[in-house]
Amino acid sequence: MTGGAGFIGSHTVDRLMETGHRVVVLDNFSTGKRANLARWVDHPMLHIAVCDVGHGIFAALAPIVAKYGPVERIIHLAAQVSVVHSVANPLVDMQVNYGGTLHVLEYARASGVQKVVLASSAAVYGDVEELPVSEDAPKRPVSPYGIDKYASELALDYYSAVHGVATTTLRFFNVYGPRQDPSSPYSGVISIFTDRARAGRPLLIFGDGTQTRDFVYVGDVVRAIIAAAGDGNSRVAANVGTGAETSVLELARTIVDLCGGTSKIEHAESRAGEILKSLARVDRLREQLGVVAETKLVDGLRLTLG
Q: What is the pLDDT at residue 44?
């Protein structure tokens, strides 16, 4: 698993380890944390290799494969995940996100990997004309991040069609939950809001707050990842969301209420490259992967707040 020490990755590691799988984590720890894997650090079935996926994964995996046998499945989560950062540094975003995916696919092709699962994003759609957005909607990304995620999807389809690599793409909507680092510039809005609300500090909304998102709890996302890593469903792209739309202003008010109601809500100018409306159509997730996001937002927020 690439990016296995990160927010989503470490929750996925937990689920795989709990069910008896041998797991190899490739992570450069630029945003991932060893503390996220502390529960398993001495477990003989977990192997951690410091690796920048954007520079290739053959060397990092070679000694592990020599000792334990071939890699069967790759869950590719490593990425630069900030839209704002991608706008400021498009070349870096391309090298990490698109380049990293190509390195993973080349390894899969050369090594006979049985399945590659890509963590893609709702950012591939851009500003959509019709909600909820289906997987077949036009792809009009409005940021380098969205462009590189869509390019990665196209690369998966190419490797499936031409080289026979089985692949599944998951388009994550707004994932939240424990272990999202609120101090990181890459953090999602929920981790930032909850951190500030706990301390009674103001919550800052970029724009008027009417922009909407489909917030999906990390536990539901992990179930989708595990399902996608199974056999079948090759050359499938599926949205991973709840099918429920929440405005950023409504989110902020809910978090303030859950934290005691002392924080003020403030506004700043909108940021470039961010979409206005986001809501997933989730029929394919249910019908082809057998997964339904079950965690209601208020329940997920309570779990996140601890």
A: 98
Q: Which two tokens stand for residue 4?
A: 């296995």
Chain segment 112-132, per-residue pLDDT in tens: 999 999 999 999 999 888 999
Cα separation of 34 and 50, whole Å?
Answer: 11
pLDDT tens column, 217-244: 999 999 999 999 999 999 999 999 999 9
Torsion of CA 35, 38, 44, 48, to 10 degrees: 0
Going from the C-alpha of 227 to that of each of 181, 182, 223, 257, the distances in angstroms are 26, 29, 6, 35
Helix (H) or strand (E) holding 281, with range, is none
Q: SS3 of 205, please?
A: strand
Q: Which domains does the chain have, with CATH numbers?
A: 7-175+216-241+279-293 (3.40.50.720)
Q: What amino acid positions are annotated as catalytic residues?
A: 145
Residue 18 has pLDDT above 60, yes or no: yes
Pairing of strands 115-121, 73-76: parallel
Would the CA dihedral through 273, 278, 282, 284 be positive or negative? negative
pTM of the model: 0.94
Q: How many CB atoms lie within 10 A of CB 183?
A: 8
Question: Which DSSP helix (H) or strand (E) runs through 286?
Answer: helix 283-289
| DSSP letters for 22-41 | -EEEEE--SS--GGGGGGGT
